[in-house]
Amino acid sequence: MKINASKLGFCIALIIFQTAFCNVRLPVLVSDGMVLQRDTNIKVWGWAEANEKVTVNFNGKTYNTAAGADGKWAVTLSKLKAGGPYNMEIDGTNHITLKNILIGDVWVCSGQSNMELPMARVKDKYPDVIANSDNSNIRQFIVPKIYDFKIPHEDLESGKWESANPESVLQFTAVGYFFAKELYEKYHIPIGLINASLGGSPAQAWMSEGALKAFPEYLQTADKYKDSNYINQIKEKDKAVSDAWYGELNKIDKGMAKWFDPDFDSSGWATMNVPGYWADYELGKVNGAVWFRKEIDVPASMVGKPARLELGRIVDADTVYVNGKFAGTTSYQYPPRKYDIPADRLKTGKNIIVVRVINNSGRGGFVTDKPYELTVAGQTIDLKGQWQYKLGATMDPLPGPTFVQWQPLGLYNGMIAPLLNYKIKGVIWYQGESNAGKPQEYQKLFTALITDWREKWSQGDFPFLYVQLANFMEAKNEPSESGWAELRQQQLKTLAVPNTGMAVISDIGEWNDIHPLNKEDVGKRLALAAEKIAYGEKEVVYSGPIYKSMKIEGNKIILIFTNIGGGLVAKGGELKYFAIAGADKKFVWAKAEISGDKVMVWNENIENPVAVRYAWADNPEGANLYNKESLPASSFRTDE
Q1: Could you tell me the CA-to-CA distances from 154 to 29, 46, 185, 205 in Å, in that order?
Q2: How far apart are CA 258 and CA 254, in angstroms?
Q3: Which of 67, 300, 394, 420 has the most CB atoms around its CB within 10 Å?
Q4: pLDDT tens across 470-504, in order?
């Protein structure tokens, strides 16, 4: 029998199409290595041909269902105790086996860069933690960074569950890992982390369209971004502006030809202290490219071995050369500059380090109070001090991009909506820096977000634990207004939402870094909140002192607190960073004293005080009210 080749091809294609169409398909999140939430009914869902029968076998039980007319199916697994690993068998037209499944507690880790920041960024601070991280009972799923302004996504594009080990843990959210580590060590229950975070994102980007209706300005913005042409125009414009700026810079930068050459004659260059900013020197406030050179003397004992070059942080971008050869580059200001130098690069005696710094706006230079050094096998050369410098090119400031991914609604649709069928224990949240420009609205915004997520997950008031902003920026000598302090106040007020907890970290930030490296204590303080709120540990003191109320007695204001634990203490001496005001609302520094479970505040020059503020600053350096459990008090104001 002769078969027509074209008909045969069509039949084969039809069979392949029908088979693919009929196959049972699972969401990306429901996959090998997943952690399922214990002690609750679990939904397992997916897609198949309309009316196709689907069977799920798990932990000795069989669950039968059929896909609806829309091709969607779901079964509900009965409550499961912690344990594993287990396999799951799913049968329809095809057969699927999911392996290595654990039953434990699942936490969504969300927010902006301080939640996103991976263990790789803090590996030098926690080498022993990373080396001993092998634990198959702590797992992470990284949600792809996708935004959409049109529709909530039903599934993720990609992703997989990873168990913690010295290699994989480098990609774990650092805050989330320390949180999970602390909980596992206490309860010995598997912990699954769903990492849905994105650097720079404001709260409104994580809210659904329904929740944004209470915020017309943000809803109108989201509506604009539903137009793909509008988005493409913005992206094209931003790219054109950036390409033109950097193209012109590279074209006119006099240093591009040979200034990185170690033999180049730089005898006429000016000098300045590094770290520092060239705006404070003769060069003044210019943007563009500035080249830096330093000659160092390297002993023979440091030659022939791999080296580490640390250049703190640089505003904004840098390209580094050692002895005329490229050593590394960083395109924006926030990451620490740590460059590995190969063993054949250094030589005995004179060596030349050259850094091209690109500054596109503001003050360019080298951030102070950071490490600047060259290290080889335990030997270190300090690189601070005099460097030569010369302007390569001057440019007008580069306009900031639009950051489409941060606009209202987009991240909810792309990164949160696909998770909503997956049962969770709760959420840990580290965000707020990007809302500090409009802090007064944050309580309303954040409360709406929490309510929104709880409604969408349909799990009641699950625990929602969050991090208050850290101390950041230069300390002030006098009481002043502060956007960061106001946002902390809004976060404090959000504790009125049931089943929430806040980790105060105003004592472990870094004045010169919006991404402080101490993520261990952040995770531990969140874990304390979880022990209290999510795990019902009634005796746990999870928070430092929280302002409750005040009363005026003569020229003193008496402050009353909750969460005093074993008692109030002044860490390191007398209480600091209390300010007081009379009817004129002009705040001045005050004296403060602990009296039992209260704090008395006064200033001899104010006879009739009306209000007190504590730790009210971007960086309340020296604020020292704690409880005996060594947990810091939240900043607060009594003058709402």
Answers
A1: 11, 10, 35, 18
A2: 9
A3: 67
A4: 999 999 999 999 999 999 999 999 999 999 999 99
β-pairing, 349-359 vs 365-366, is: unpaired
Is 359 exposed, middle or buried, given 0-12, 13-18 or 19+ CB atoms closer than 10 A? buried
**1-10, 18-27, 277-286: range with lowest mean pLDDT:** 1-10
CA angle 427, 430, 432 (to 5 degrees): 125
DSSP state of 25: B
Cα separation, 191 vs 267, in Å, equals 60
Amino acid (one-letter) located at 401: P
Across the range 144-155, mean pLDDT stands at 98
Query: Tokens 């509506």 map to which residue?
Result: 223
263 burial class (0-12, 13-18, 19+ CB within 10 angstroms)? exposed
Residue of 572, 549, 568 whose CA lies nearest to 631: 568
Query: Residues 203-211: what's their mean pLDDT?
Result: 98
Confidence of residue 318 (pLDDT cuts 50, 70, 90): very high
Q: Could you give the CA distance from residue 87 to residue 99 in angstroms, rounded to a whole number?
A: 5
Distance CA 250, CA 612 (A): 53
Average pLDDT, the chain: 96
Q: Give the tens place of pLDDT for each residue, 515-537.
A: 999 999 999 999 999 999 999 99
- pLDDT band for position 640 (cuts 50, 70, 90): confident
Chain centroid offset of residue 472 CA: 15
Give the span between the Cα atoms of 254 and 391, in whole angstroms: 8
Task: Tell if the pTM clears 0.85, that is, is over it.
Answer: yes
Instruction: Supply 444's token pair.
Output: 């309303």
- The tokens for 92 are 């329809």
Please report how the helices 483-493 and 442-457 are oriented relative to each other, as an axis angle in degrees rounded to 10.
Answer: 40
CA distances for 620 relative to 508, 559, 614, 634, angstroms: 11, 19, 9, 11
Contact 400, 234 (CB under 8 A): no
- The full DSSP string for 548-613 is EEEEEETTEEEEEEE--TT-EEETTSS---EEEE-TT---EE-EEEEETTEEEEE-TT-SS--EEE
Query: Distance (Å, rounded) from C-alpha 425 to C-alpha 402?
Result: 35
Write the pLDDT tens digit of every residue in 374-426: 999 999 999 999 999 999 999 999 999 999 999 999 999 999 999 999 999 99
Q: What tokens does 258 get?
A: 């040979």
| β pairing state of 287-298 and 385-395 | antiparallel
H/E stretch holding 114: helix 113-116
**Which DSSP state fits 210?**
H
Q: Which residues lie across from 90 on neighbouring strands? A: 56, 96
* Nearest Cα residue to 436 out of 579, 619, 576: 619
Task: State how far the Cα of 372 lies from the Cα of 320, in Å rounded to an integer.
Answer: 13
